[in-house]
Amino acid sequence: MPRQPVYEQVIDDVTASIRSGTLKPGDKLPSITELCEQYRASATPIRLALRILDERGWIEVHQGKGSFVAQSPPA
Predict the structure, then answer these.
(1) pLDDT interval class at 1 (50, 70, 90)
(2) Domains parsed from the chain with CATH numbers
(3) What are the HTH gntR-type domain coordinates in residue numbering (predicted)?
């Protein structure tokens, strides 16, 4: 079975954490640097995952402040 791309793994993990209630609206996500270390990946796929999560309404990215779980994430 082919390995899942890192950005998809990040998206799946974050959405699962939000759905399960581990991450709640307003919670801050780890920094890009911390996510790079956690997933042993470069910043490029991490940024891509965060951008997709933002576009899909799961998180809100605030320049210079970080990424936060959206107040009303998708069901």
Answers:
(1) low
(2) 6-69 (1.10.10.10)
(3) 4-72
Number of other CB atoms surrounding residue 61 within 10 Å: 15
Beta bridge partners of 66: 62
**Pairing verdict, β 66-69 and 59-62:** antiparallel
Distance CA 54, CA 46 (A): 12
Q: What is the pLDDT of residues 11-51, one digit of tens each?
A: 999 999 999 999 999 999 999 999 999 999 999 999 999 99
Q: Which amino acid is at 14?
A: V
Alpha-carbon span 46 to 72, nearest angstrom:
22
Query: What span, in angstroms and rounded, lies between the C-alpha atoms of 75 and 42?
Result: 30
* Cα angle value 65/68/69 (rounded, 5°): 175
